[in-house]
Structure prediction request, 960 residues.
Amino acid sequence: MLNFDEIFVTRNYFGKPVRRNADTRFVKGEGSYVDDLNMDCVYAGFVRSPHPHAKLGRIDTSKAEALKGVLAVMTGPEVAAVTKPIGSRAITRPTRQHVMATGKVRYVGEPVAIVVANDRYTLEDALDLVEVEYEPLPVVVELDDAMKADAPLIFEEAGTNVLLDDTLTHGDIDGAFRDADLVVKEQFRVQRFSSTPLENWAIIAKYDKGTDSYTVWSNCQQPGRSIVNISGCLGVSSNKLRFIVPDSGGGFGIKLALWPYAVAQCVIARKVDKPVKWIQTRREHLLTGTHTPDCIVDLELALKKDGKVLGLKIQDRQNDGSFVHTAGIYNLIKFATMVGCYNIKATQAHMMSIVSNKAPTVQNRGVGKPVMIFTLERLMTRAANQLGIDPAEMRFRNFVQPEQMPHTTPSGEIYESGNYPETLRTALKNVGYEEFKKQQADLRKEGTYIGIGLSASIEPGTSNLGYYYTSRGTPEYMGNAEGAIVTMDYDGNVSVLLGSVDEGQGHATSVGQVIADMLAFTPDRVTMNTRMDSLMSPFLGHSGCYANRFNDVDMGACIMATKKVRDKVLKLGAHMLKVPESEVTLKDGTVCWKKDTAKAVTYKEVATVAYKQILLLPPGVEPGLKEVAYYKNEIAKLPNKENFNVQMTHSNSVHAVVVEVDTESGMIKFRRYVIVHDCGRHINPGIVDGMAIGSTVHGIGTVLLEEFIYDENGQILTTSFVDYMKPLAVGLPRFELQHLESPCPTSLLGTKAVGEGGAIGSLAAIANAVEDALTPFGVKVTSLPITPEKVMRAIRETKVI
Amino acid sequence: MHTIKVRINGKDYEDEVEPRLLLVHYLRDKVHLTGTHVGCDTGNCGACTVFLNGEAIKSCNMLAVQADGAELTTVEGLAKDGALHPVQEAFLDKFAIQCGYCTPGMMISALALIKSNPNPSEAEIREAIEGNICMCTGYEQIVDAIAHAASLMRQSRSA
Prediction:
């Protein structure tokens, strides 16, 4: 692996808060999101099922087709007839599902017909004119009902609603529970929620008759896999599909699985012979396809009297709705995160992915990590209280110690770096933990109820993709990697193409900083086209913006491609200066002689030889200065149930939160919010801070506000931002954020995961603080969200939130 | 169809529009000013905020015909003669953009505040952008950027 010190020639930009000038277009209103592309599109929309479960009868499209301005209507069965079914990733039972409903509908909002019209408004009229006959079937909404022996089946061919049922045991779990002085257990329920990017899903599909090929523009987060999925469903070779991702208005995982809609649009685009644009409405977004699974998690800790945790068992039942592609993924990520920051030697994970008549689920910021850490950190605090040990002390006694790094967990995760005790010590100091306890007692006497909550969490990054298949054999994808092309152009400037995409993380700025320091010039000489285009960009099946992987494999690919360009520039420069290659270096955008730096050639002069005066090249050297590199994280293990690493980098954090609970209204107010975060080295601290805080606010929304609510008939009640509430600027604390820096030894820059951290650590910290505040009332928190209504009911009657 | 006349970012437009056409779709699809965004269907998110006769409004909550005769400023009208407006500089300085989708509406709401209150407190800033949802930043860097913008604008006024 390239040594950190070998990467940089200068250190002028790496680690500094360089302004995101590469994204000035966003403040000028000149971004280019899918709906901004001006290309004479016609508009597509979907007729959606009002029933949660029903046999699909006759679909009469004649009235819609007769409307002036309507170009085509296709039903779900018509689309299914010319496409292949959707593949599943993690579940083990056989299922058959197409990109649109066929035979029956399985959730409210499932698309049953696609309509194309000349404009958005005619389209809306036409959608109302499609008449669909439904024969309602018995409905299964909640987990408890879906698991009953006589429950109606969502996928009859599976023979059960439990599509993944697997138990993974590592270490001596029976021994741990046998030797325990105390077993602490709890059942937790976590709701459906979503990080809801501000830009909804958006897709344009075009068919070109001349080449018999398709082009898709979309705000997809995972182009590498979507190309495989779309071309597979269409039954065409992947070189017949050009895939382009322009600017994207936020992702958070929610845009990883929009590709089934692209398949339907490709089919109808071929029919109408025009570019077909679908801009999802917010109602559609909240109605279908963007949810986390709701889940019931039973967690058990086996403990010694001194607080040492010997073993941990989880039974995880998650309601994956009705989409086979993503079902089961959350279970497996929870399993991989289950020991958190602790040195626990024995684990058992019983994972069940259960289908119902709720909407499809998709990966949401952190996937299973937030719920796993929520349940673990809730139970650690519960256990500490039962043993009479301070919750902070309880964590110190169980942490993996810095001198134990790299640490391998029972199932094979390799924690490569981090100082967990120091992270907690810093947080306790910053929040004033000891003083707080005195203040709390005084305030209680006055009828003011404040509480403090801690959580210590890992924030894993870069998935080793084979994990989806730990339950069923050979994976289609393994490891994780990315590709980059770096070009030095005629003028000696650099342009970069990446297989991945940018969802708002400022990749162009970060890449510009690193390359500027690798080539000893300024970031304004680096241009990065963040608009992935499969015709030009290097990509792999892994390519995309997910799993906190940018700082690892994406950056790795950029560095290795730049290194190749740099090596060639040095070789050409030395040749032009007529000195040995060992005697040249880079300075201020030139190749110069170490002994006299005034003797130099500019990059432009080097490029002139490489591209134009090619007869002056040294013997055996190819013309041009364009290099491609693919970079993979080397620590990925081959998929194996006994010993496997699901994630490859591990950031960590401690959240220490002080809340005040108004026992008259149930409202929760933040008094302090301390975060201590360790994501290794930073490329750009301004960007890192924004993600650490932004992800924490996602967690705050999850704990206090957000929930997709279904009634007992399977109707979803939360389909606008009036009913599905998001955090606003008012009501949030000012965050007290501090960073520690434990460089990652397995990424080129020592950087680690950044994007998900706050969404993982915040849930338990806030819940622990609320429970602490309500200690005088004996209220326990076992579910989310913690709404004022639930707080009041718990104080007055149930004692349980 | 109705004929409407509007002045947008200093330029006059006259167009035939359907009576049901939303102002935001008029701006985006007819005038091709795509900096104004759509993030919800219910007027909650504020991505479509523009100035109409000097007042910040949500252009998804208004019909194009209702804007007949009005003067509008959208995000595209903030920079003058190639120089960024102080609010745009401030958003870049303070890392107040991530995906950029809420940014245009957020900056219009910020300017509406600063116009009436040149030196707003943090609480006043937070209240002023309550009608604008940002999903990425958690608002803190946006709040800092608005305070910074107000400061830059006070400086340029006193200069």
User: Anything to note?
Assistant: The radius of gyration of chain B is 16 Å. Chain B touches chain A through 59 residues (CB under 8 Å). The longest helix of chain B spans residues 140-158.
